[in-house]
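Narrative progress, year one. The postdoctoral researcher (J.K.) led the effort to move from monomer predictions toward full complexes, under supervision of the PI. The following entry was the first complex the group processed end to end, covering 756 residues in total.
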Amino acid sequence: MITGNLKASYAADEQVFDNRNKRAFLYAALLGLAALAGFADDYVILVACQMGILLIAVVGVNVVTGYTGLISLGHAAFVAVGAYTVTIFHEAFAGAIPEGLRALIAIPVAMAVSALVGIIVGLPSLRVKGLYLAVATLSANFIVIFLIEQEVFAPWTGGMVGIDTPAPDFLGWTLDTKREMFVLIAALGVLTLLAVQNLFRTRVGRAFIAIRDRDYSAEIMGISLLRTKLTSFAISAALCGLSGALFAYFYARILPEQFELALSLELVAAMIVGGMGRTMGPVFGVAVIVMVPEVIKSIFGVATGGEAGVAQLLAPLQEIAFGLLIVLFLLFEPLGLNHMADRALRALNRWPFAR
Amino acid sequence: MTLTRRSFLATGAAASAAIGAPMVLRAQPSEYVFGASLPMTGPFATAGQLVAPTLKMFEDLANEDGGIGGVPIRTTAEDSGYIPQNALANYQRALATEENLVFYYGDSTGFMKLVAPELRGENARLMGSTSFASELADPEKNPYQYLAGPSYEDQFDILLENIAAEGGTTVAFVYSNTEFGRDPLERGRAKAAELGIEVVLEESTKAQGADIPTHVTKLAQANAEYCILQGYVTGVWPQLIGGARQFGLPTKFMGTFWGMEKLIADRVTAEAGPFLDGYLGVMPYRYSYDAETAPRYARYAEYQKANFAGTPLETYLPTWGLQSLCAMELGLTALRRVHEEGKELTADNAAEALASIQDWDSGGFFGVPVSMEGNKIGTGRVYRYAAETNLYTPASDWFTV
């Protein structure tokens, strides 16, 4: 049982993983990911990649909504910007930049462009809050998709019909299989989580939380609302841009319809189910949003032998089961799965003295 | 060495062991699997729900005919909700869980495009789909994917040729602002120019909930003799025609495959009156009630009567079901040919066999023998809807483009 964390030096005080349990969890998680990359079948790899891509975007939404308290329903737009930026970048600099370097530059560029778009979309957050901001960001989603679909931009974006995406090449290593992409996605996913965990130990991160808890109090304490809110939007959008870049590299083709409102809602739903304003919240949320429908489908498939006539009747039931599950989570655990996991771990840690 | 009876038998036994053993080891599987993703929920749930039962019918009838070389087939389907990524996950799951998956049926253009680059080596399977997108019919780029009929571009060609044959000189293109709606426009313009038909209006609408009066007004201003509607399934096209009729426009309306379902036309007629009377459209297949000299349709009808009693499928097979059945029959034909040639049922062999389907007697789907050219069958015919009889009847001969 750990009753406290002894910190005998400043270095120990600055550690993210400040006790052996947390370190053990990190190593186990890394081992688990390595085992997945090595042994899982293609289907599991596909689902894991989908989860990883979504996870990075949900971490982004968590920064702006979970930590800064600014509701956004338009984050799919930033994912789209990231996805289209890397695709266009690869096309535009096909001759100018060696292939092995293109992805290394394209990913940061995609994040930067998304951040820029994020700042623009975040501007209304200075004047409006809550549901009004949600509607303002929602419109960003529609505008970005509308622009992508325009015939004028079709030579770059492919317009309505979408566009084939490149396979990334890192210094000669072409990631042209799902398994190789999984390595990249998993690495960037872990890095994103660590970066965000660290962000909230810095002045900027704490300013985000101060704004979430009471914005005028934060302002009185000397936090610039303008700069901090826009920084939050920029960081959040950049992470979604990263997610978009991976999305483009992962799928062989991107279509505008993949980045519509449904994706924005999925991101917010994953964040809420997992736990807002918690580092591990998005991990739990994404696991539920992506994996549960797959598990339900597999269970129903095994139970019925996958016969079409039965699947026809059960398909709507699967949707209902999934919806019901989300409602039950929100009813019985409004603080998200992360909170549930916290309680379970706490009970385990203090057993048999507490439950 | 002299060949005695004993040494002959010993040599024979050794030879059979050497040659025969691998054959035994590579024994035929107990079944072959035909997988499918269908939109059983979501915006096209109506279509997915009607197509699902036909899979079982296909399975039963194919197995009555001996499956593939005596090995029975099994169909399996999963819901995609019409989301391409979900369908991709379904396909990957089928690959991982079904050892003998030999064919897959996709449910959208989006999915077919998303999955195309994945179809390599071990992961490749012969693949049909609900889509008639022109881009998919490209054996160089997508060797394993095919269209079980004419592409939307071909369907436009068929309609425009029909207009030219009737002496029409002006046409309007009204299309939904989707990939589906825009697919054949460029080709349509070129074909119209070639046939000397003037395209007097190109009007884009929303796929659902379009602003009908505005579009009808534009149509009236353009005063086209014919109007081709593209990119709609259940909505917009009936309202547009209704609006135009109320306006008193004499324009003749035409549609492509997805706007030709009798169930939809019947429902519109029952609810809003006979304004769809005379609506023309191109169909790759004969309607299921057009079963004369169509042994396959007669067999389907018998099965439907016995197995789908009390459902809309008892007496009628929707065009969407016919499309899936035709795609799967083509896949089955190709796979049977591979088996007959004694080859393994790989996607490459199946694609090769698919291309060899020439002058195919489809047993009813098409009114003439058809051929797989460039991974599609460019054959179709114009049908006209009669509100009084609630039937689509042929308005042209079969065209092959």
